[in-house]
From TrEMBL:
Pfam families, alphabetized: DUF3429
Keyword Transmembrane in record: yes
Source species: Roseisalinus antarcticus
InterPro entries (alphabetical): DUF3429 (IPR021836)
Protein's name according to its UniProt entry: DUF3429 domain-containing protein
Transmembrane domains' residue ranges: 6-27, 47-68, 88-115, 127-148
UniProt entry keywords in alphabetical sequence: Membrane, Transmembrane, Transmembrane helix
Amino acid sequence: MTRPPTSALILGCAGLVPFLWGALTVLMPGFGQQAATLIGGRFVGPYVQLFYGAIILSFMSGVLWGFATKADGPRAAAGYALSTLPALWAFFMTGGGPTSAATNLAAGFAALLLLDAQFARWGLAPAWWMTLRIGLSAAVILTLLPVIF
């Protein structure tokens, strides 16, 4: 695996901020309540994580769709079909309360990592893709654990 471009690494890490913020406000309930009063309940705790997480899974569907455009024939068809799964997962599996939604979101990000690996095996993702995605996926899943447990 090769090193991701600096810009991709910085933007990927910046994308972790809502997950980290949400985990912080769950782990520090008093701070979370103060933040909710100041900026609104939607922007703290599991709410920010779950809403943003569903958006990111949908975004990642678009990324995989872009990778699929590099393929031809049956591999392209498979790539297009697989690329829709993260968005569909987010749509169907992130309701039902914060614990089940966070559990399903964490599972979605773990499954997304498997899709990332498949697109990389097919040679459709950049050589550095898995280096970036493993770290980001691990961080997202870890930040969802306080909501799950």
